[in-house]
Design goal:
The complex is a heterodimer.
Chain A (H helix, E strand, L loop, with lengths): L4 E10 L2 E11 L4 E5 L6 H9 L6 E6 L3 E4 L11 H12 L5 H6 L15 H13 L5 E5 L7 H16 L3 E6 L2 H7 L2 E6 L2 E6 L1 H8 L3 E7 L3 E6 L2 H14 L4 E7 L3 H13 L2
Parallel strand pairs in A: 3-7, 3-8, 5-6, 6-7
Antiparallel strand pairs in A: 1-2, 1-4, 8-9, 10-11, 10-12
Chain B lengths: L1 H16 L1 H25 L7 H27 L2 H7 L6 H29 L7 H25 L3 H17 L12 H7 L3 H11 L4 H29 L1
Helix pairs in contact in B: 1-5, 2-3, 2-5, 3-5, 3-6, 3-7, 3-9, 5-6, 6-9, 6-10, 9-10
């Protein structure tokens, strides 16, 4: 099936510093895809190359469909009002304004304010509205919730989920694991200018999380044990505790958070 | 075209909300006109013949060299331009709309001076309005052309303010609008003709649009347009 976004061998450098060293990835239509990486990994550069805002030295980028772009660092004239900005960009896109979209993002309630008077959350919502103004098929979001409080973050997550439910392809760059885990179907981890992993969050856990962690709290102590053999280790631990007559108050078993797997993977890839 | 016209109207509204632009394009020039118009015409009664033109040169120079470039630098030196590009707005859109909007603002100020100076200071109106108005339009365009090049070339606000003064002060001091240029030393009088203010002031006074007094402002206008195109290309390349 034709991908909504296809990137092959993307290379980009600033001066002598190579930021992208042959990035390749494919995003299916209607998919929510995240590009993960630490600060400075090249996520914004990759995103801007794919969006067509930045030139690249080599590689091939194909985007099928109309794109809406929300930039990480974005600004508007200080005195412009939200509806004026929406109208301006709608006219350039030759599209009609969707009142329900504006309503959902709370644009009418901030319409009397000038851009300079908007809060960070309101600015984020306005820039998302601008990205959606041309009725895009594909939405590029660069760190969409950076700088937002918990309430603003959750509200924006609801909006993004609603957009995904409408069938829009979402390409997100983020360093927030929780955000990615809750919003995206697949992720690519960018490290050393390449995608060192591309798959679902579950596949990432599968790939890196071979060890289970057993958290045990007893009436005497609380400890965490790591093991690859969950059944054997758990049985042995419980037998040992019973033998010593130590009472177990709580037991939890997990395979680590996405963040830990990410750290493990990027840590590995950065080793010489 | 619809989007472009909307952009000009929007820019006009944004300018009206910008205190700094209102101060530089309306408040200071008109206060200067009201205050200095009275002084000039009482100290030197002959200035009644040139007051309208000199105050217009002063107002246009102030608005175009000191008020306009910072707004342009803000648009092209910040992420505003990136947002415009991401939303399919042409790179030259900001410059074009801001130029035309500023042109209208300066024209309004000039119209106020043109109408008020005979009433308030008994100043002589331009002898030939049909020649005066094109000369005025040319001076506004040339000044905004220089202002545009400044705003695109110098993104740093402090350096931009200094660069603007380097054009603004000689334009008003050496063009003959404050006192007759014939009183200046030869070197300064010659230096004054490097600035379009001197040429356009004469154009507005004598009302004769001829190649010999048009060529220099036209040359500066085309040179600044070429500079703006090159600067826009450079900015766009730097963004990518």
């Amino acid at each position: 099936m034709r991908g909504a976004i296809q990137v092959r061998g993307l290379r980009k450098s600033y001066g002598g510093r190579k930021v992208l060293r042959g990035l390749s990835l494919r995003v299916a239509p209607g998919e929510a895809f995240a590009l993960l990486g630490t600060n400075g990994a090249g996520k914004t550069t990759a995103l801007e190359c794919i969006e067509g805002l930045r030139r690249y030295e080599a590689g091939e980028v194909t985007v099928h469909g109309r794109a809406g772009i929300q930039l990480q660092s974005a600004s508007l004239p200080a005195h412009i009002r939200p509806m004026e900005a929406v109208s301006l960009f709608a006219k350039w896109s030759r599209t009609d304004i969707d009142p329900s979209m504006l309503e959902a993002l709370g644009i009418p309630e901030m319409s009397r304010k000038q851009y300079v008077q908007l809060s960070t959350g309101q600015k984020r919502r306005l820039h998302l509205a601008l990205a959606l103004t041309g009725s895009p098929d594909i939405l590029f979001l660069d760190e969409p919730t950076a700088g937002l409080d918990v309430e603003g973050r959750l509200a924006l997550h609801r909006q993004i989920r609603a957009l995904k439910a409408q069938g829009k392809t979402i390409f997100l760059a983020s360093h927030d694991m929780a955000e990615v885990e809750s919003l995206c179907d697949r992720i690519a981890i960018l490290s050393g200018g390449k995608a060192i992993f591309c798959g679902t969050p579950a596949e990432l856990t599968e790939r890196t999380g071979t060890k289970y962690r057993i958290h045990i709290r007893t009436d005497q102590w609380e400890r965490t044990f790591e093991t690859g053999d969950i059944e054997g280790r758990l049985a042995a631990l419980l037998g040992e505790l019973k033998q010593k007559n130590i009472r177990v108050q709580d037991i939890r078993v997990d395979r680590g958070t996405l963040e830990e797997h990410f750290m493990e993977l990027t840590g590995r890839s950065e080793q010489p | 075209m619809n989007a472009f016209l909307y952009g000009i109207a929007l820019q006009w509204r944004l300018d009206m909300r910008s205190k700094s632009l209102l101060v530089a394009c309306y408040l200071v020039p008109l206060l200067f006109f009201l205050f200095m118009g009275g002084i000039f015409t009482s100290v030197m009664p002959d200035m009644k013949n040139t007051l309208t033109q000199s105050m217009i040169v002063m107002s246009v120079s102030m608005g175009a060299f000191t008020g306009f470039p910072p707004s342009l630098a803000e648009t092209y030196g910040t992420d505003i331009q990136k947002v415009y590009l991401a939303n399919r707005v042409p790179f030259c859109f900001g410059l074009a709309t801001m130029f035309l909007s500023a042109f209208l603002h300066l024209a309004v100020t000039c119209a106020a001076i043109l109408l008020l100076s005979p009433v308030l200071f008994d100043a002589a109106p331009p002898a030939q309005l049909s020649a005066f108005l094109p000369a005025l339009a040319l001076y506004i365009a040339v000044s905004l052309g220089i202002g545009s090049a400044l705003g695109l070339a110098v993104p740093n606000p402090a350096k931009l303010a200094m660069a603007a003064q380097l054009v603004f002060l000689p334009s008003i001091m050496l063009s003959g609008i404050m006192f007759p240029a014939s009183l200046l030393p030869d070197v300064l009088r010659a230096a004054g003709y490097l600035f379009p203010a001197s040429w356009c002031y004469q154009l507005m006074l004598d009302g004769g649009l001829r190649l010999e007094n048009l060529w220099y402002p036209m040359l500066v206008l085309f040179a600044s347009a070429a500079a703006c195109i090159l600067l826009l290309k450079r900015l766009q390349a730097a963004r990518a």
